[in-house]
Amino acid sequence: MNALPPQQTPLYNHPLPSLEQWLVELGAARDKADPCRWDLHQAFWSALIELDIEELKVSWHQEGRTTVRLFSYGLSRADVEAAIFAGP
Distance between CA 31 and CA 50 in Å, rounded? Predict the structure, then answer.
């Protein structure tokens, strides 16, 4: 695999294969029916990560509740990763 851009690089400066590699490294699994959707499971919550055209959408699921946040591709990979793992 290729090296990812530095963590402070905005997501819009990541080629699609790098974004996909990053999601795999986070532990996410690609949805077989929709390659833009990725599932990430943690001990107390799960998340659906969607690579939309204008932003990255994260839907956390925890104890029957869903929390949705949209992240601009202008944010750094480090910031988005920290937000994802902060959970709902």
Answer: 10
Prediction pTM value? 0.92
Q: What is the pLDDT of residues 41-83, one digit of tens each?
A: 999 999 999 999 999 999 999 999 999 999 999 999 999 999 9
In the structure encoding, which two tokens stand for residue 16, read together?
């699609």
**CA separation for the pair 32, 56 (Å, rounded):** 19
Long-range residue pairs from 53-61, CB within 8 A, at least 24 positions apart, any chain? 56/11, 56/80, 58/83, 58/84, 60/87, 60/88, 61/88
Question: Nearest to residue 22, comparing CAs of 87, 85, 86?
Answer: 85
* Number of residues that make up the chain: 88
